[in-house]
Amino acid sequence: MKDNEIASFDKELNKFLQPKCLIPGGLGLWETYFRRICTAWGCIDSEIRPQHIIFSADNGCNMEGYVGYNYEVTQKQSRNMVLGNTAATLFCKFNTIPYEVVDVGIASEDGIGVDCKVAKGTKNILHGPAMTSEEFNAAFQAGYERVEYYVAQKINLFSFGEMGLGNTTTSACVLSALTKATPEETVGFGSWPDKPDLMKRKIDFVRQVLDFHQDYLDVSNEIDRVHTIIARVGGFDIAAITGAMIACTEHRVPFVIDGFITAVAAACATHINPQVEDYALPSHHSRERGMDIALAEVGLTRDMVPIQAQMAMGEGTGAILMVQMLRTTHHMFVNVGTFADIMKL
After folding, report:
1. Mean pLDDT, the chain, integer
2. Which residue of 88, 222, 231, 275 is most buried, as measured by CB atoms within 10 A?
């Protein structure tokens, strides 16, 4: 929407909400996000029709033993998500939110879920680029096209999750390269909250990666710079989620950010298209150290994040909880009675 169109629609929203039997502003962020969703749509739709997409991929830094668990966990957990037996997918099933698992780079012979496999994991970013430019484009386009597929089916709210051992490390690399924040500011514990010795190892790894790639990351064109950063030090999941968020923005469909990895993807998408800020909705504040930095790139502060639960699960667990709360509050705003109605009682 152009500024004059937003102003005109804001008046329409005010006219819609003013008679409602509600204390003005009494629902805080829920009114803020009801307004943001409707403004993104350019209308007041009667319902939210959600779709959750989980992008799965392996990372070279994990497959070569630098961080985390055995890399085969990504494959096994992705299969488990397809079966609907993980935290995020059980959240989806309980709340009747459709979901899919998209394989953009799992290190398996076969495709798992929706097969968009670019390669069997990225390369080790300590010694070279994570992916070629062609592989980046393929992963980015896979995310973009999954959104387009569902937009054609009248989905009007997306949420994104991810699965891939080592992706908090790649996300810290991307965020530091994007914002110039230090590894000490962007690296968190990931899946190892009780192992402080691994934190130092992880910080050292990210610093070595950034030093190795430094000469390649100074690109003047901002869109090319983001593409280069993800291709050099990111993961297929980050590339795909970034593409999906760009598609949401171009098709004027709001989306829900999950935790640290998706917040980093949102930061990347915002650097590609600043209008992403108008479509991005936060869900939970991940306990990962770089979360505030990533959200700030999308114009979001901690007090704008509804769920403060110290989560770091991935898969989109926080995003799904947010979608259900948005569905609940949207239903209320659309259907709640007016003051005129109660005066007739």
Report:
1. 94
2. 88
Residue of 100, 135, 297, 315 with catalytic role: 315
Q: Which of 280, 281, 304, 278 is nearest to 292 (CA)?
A: 304
Cα–Cα dist 300/113, whole Å: 32
> Annotated catalytic, 145?
no
Please name the residue that has the structure tokens 């005109």.
8
d(CA 89, CA 167): 20
- Per-residue pLDDT tens digits for 125-165: 999 999 999 999 999 999 999 999 999 999 999 999 999 98
- Does the pTM surpass 0.85? The reply is yes
CATH code at 181? 3.40.50.10210
Residues 186 and 282 in one domain: yes
* Whether residue 140 is found in the same domain as residue 180: yes
Q: How many residues can be counted in the chain? A: 345
Q: By the 8 A CB rule, do 183 and 337 touch?
A: no
